[in-house]
Amino acid sequence: NDKVAELKEEAWRVLGFIKGYLGYLRDCKADERSIVREGDDTLTVDDDDALALLDEALSDTAPL
Question: What is the mean pLDDT of residues 39-47?
Answer without folding.
Answer: 59
